[in-house]
Amino acid sequence: MTALDDPASLDADRSGMFGHIRALGHEIVRAWRNNESLSLPALPPSLDSVVVAGMGGSATAGDYFATLCSATAPIPVVVVRGGALPAFASDRTLVVVSSYSGETSESLACYDEARAQGAPVIAITAGGTLKARAAADGVPVVAIDYVSPPRAAIAHTIAPLLRLGAMLELCPADDIAVDDAANECESFICGKLAPAISSAENPAKLTAQALWRRVPLVLGGEHLAPVTTRFKNQLAENGKTLAIAETLPEAAHNIVVGLQTADDDASRIGVVGDGRDAGVIRTTRGTSPEHAGAWDFKACTNAHRDRPWRLCLVLPGAASWHRPHANPRNRTHAGSLRRSVSGTNLNAPDRRATPL
User: Fold this and answer.
1) Residue 120 backbone dihedrals phi, psi, to 5 degrees
2) DSSP 328-344
3) Which residues contact 50 (CB under 8 A, 6 or more apart)?
4) Where in the chain do CATH 3.40.50.10490 domains reside?
5) For residue range 267-300, what is the model confidence (pLDDT) as tens digits?
6) What per-residue confidence (pLDDT) applies to 289?
7) Are 246 and 218 in contact (CB under 8 A)?
8) How far apart are CA 317 and CA 204, in angstroms?
9) In the β-sheet with 121-125, what is the strand arrangement from edge to edge?
């Protein structure tokens, strides 16, 4: 038994984050059904692009959506994290502005710019200035009716995008696919990730333990690019942990060179990623066996390439939720943080290069 198996550690979850993780399957079905009659603005007959504008957790769904669309959409679907639309945006661009709070300044700036250009706009929000401004302008509003931190409301930001994708034939999404995704989430959470499941059999706890005292390096194939970003951001917001996210095969052409010369810091970085990509980092650019051992993967998923949106919504949240239980700097977990993880003294330096 480790500190992560101590029932008292659940008391540290003051925001109820694991409850949001557990509800994900149910909520994505509910949000999908709630948006069955999604209202669209008047669209030009020659729609030539879609832009999803958002920041932080509100942009995450856009990342998943854009990646899904990249394989099938006849027009580009891009995500904007900032206060300005891309130069190509015009009255033939559908702009989806996503802001959970409705008060994100960058998202509001994109809304105003889209309106000024005469672009069709949809707003996804729980309220605030964005909802009020859109209502006054006659812009369709997808109202988020789920109370949570923005990053935990991903079911309610991705579902309307999937509906939009299906309506415009940008991506494959239907009742069967969404139900299957929800069932997979619920099965994975209940069967693998529940807090009551011991560390020896719980992938989220194993990942959190493997990353203890390390800077996580999250690697994923192109189809998992939004997942690597999500994992990094969840580690920051849930786990209060600095992390790095990179995409393969690009990372295998540059970052591996840095890994080969990082002997002294090998024990300070933990690598997590799709298990099927593990060989890439070991074989590209002449990575030696001794380095391959120190930089081994903690495989998090074997997500299928044609369904990146249905997969890794769960594990990044669960692993990052466990991560602060071993972080003495996170005062919200003070009761459990002074315990040892796997018998390791949390206050003692540890520079051993242990394969993950």
Assistant:
1) -65, 140
2) TT-GGGHHHHTSPBTTB
3) 69, 73, 75, 76, 77, 78, 93, 94, 95, 96, 164, 168, 170
4) 18-178, 198-337
5) 566 666 665 665 655 554 444 333 333 334 444 4
6) 36
7) yes
8) 9
9) 77-80, 49-54, 93-99, 121-125, 141-143
Burial class (CB in 10 A: 0-12, 13-18, 19+), 42: exposed
What CATH class is the domain 198-337? alpha beta
**8 A C-beta contact, residue 280 and residue 249:** yes
18-178: in CATH 3.40.50.150 = no
pLDDT at 221: 81
Cβ-contact 57, 153 below 8 angstroms: yes
Residue 12, CB-side half-sphere exposure with 13 Å CA sphere: 25
Q: Is 138 left (phi over 0), alpha (psi -120 to 50) or beta?
A: left
3-state SS class at 245: strand
* Cα 312 to the center of its chain, rounded Å: 7
Can you name the residues that pair with 216 across neighbouring β-strands?
270
Look up the pTM and report it.
Answer: 0.80
Give the chain's residues under pLDDT 70: 1, 259-356
Residue found under tokens 């015009």: 90
Angstrom distance (rounded) from CA 226 to CA 330: 27
